[in-house]
């Protein structure tokens, strides 16, 4: 089992940047496909970005494409989400998630059900 801990959230003005980190323990992250999701109050948890275990393949939600970049450093057991040009609509609790297997990640990388390990989340608040 892998334990995931997000960090790097905070308060930032619109147009600013933040980098979120997801640190793993219990097992190396290198064998897991990873995703970032976010959830705003009163809304469903939505897909943000995903990355294959080698980092060769990435996916992004249309709402963040061109502004956010997902990356990973398997030697550090860490996945990152670089967020630029932040908007108030990006305000949410951000979660990282890991797919330990059992299904083909490439078929449904944007679906919550694909992932079976989740962090506690880190809050991102973007002011106008």
Any overview of this molecule?
The chain has strands at residues 3-7, 10-13, 18-25, 33-39, 46-51, 58-60, 68-73, 78-83, 92-99, 117-118, 122-127. With 128 residues, the protein is an all-beta fold. Strands 2, 4, 5, 6, 9, 10 and 11 form a 7-stranded mixed β-sheet that branches. A hairpin with a 6-residue loop joins β4 (33-39) and β5 (46-51). The protein is globular, with a radius of gyration of 14 Å. The N and C termini lie far apart (40 Å).
How would you describe this structure in keywords?
128 residues; mainly beta; seven-stranded mixed beta sheet
Summarize the structure.
This protein has strands at residues 3-7, 10-13, 18-25, 33-39, 46-51, 58-60, 68-73, 78-83, 92-99, 117-118, 122-127.
């Amino acid at each position: 089992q892998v334990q995931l801990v997000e960090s790097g959230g905070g308060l930032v003005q619109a147009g600013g940047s933040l980098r979120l980190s997801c640190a793993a323990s219990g097992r190396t992250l290198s064998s897991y496909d990873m995703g970032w999701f976010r959830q705003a109050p009163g809304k469903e948890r939505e897909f943000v970005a995903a990355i294959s275990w080698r980092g060769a393949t990435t996916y992004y939600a249309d709402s963040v494409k061109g502004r956010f970049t997902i990356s990973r450093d398997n030697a550090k057991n860490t996945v990152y989400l670089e967020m630029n040009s932040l908007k108030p609509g990006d305000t949410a609790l951000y979660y990282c998630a890991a797919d330990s297997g059992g299904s083909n990640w490439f078929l449904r990388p944007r679906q919550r059900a694909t992932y079976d390990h989740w962090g506690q989340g880190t809050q991102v608040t973007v002011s106008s």
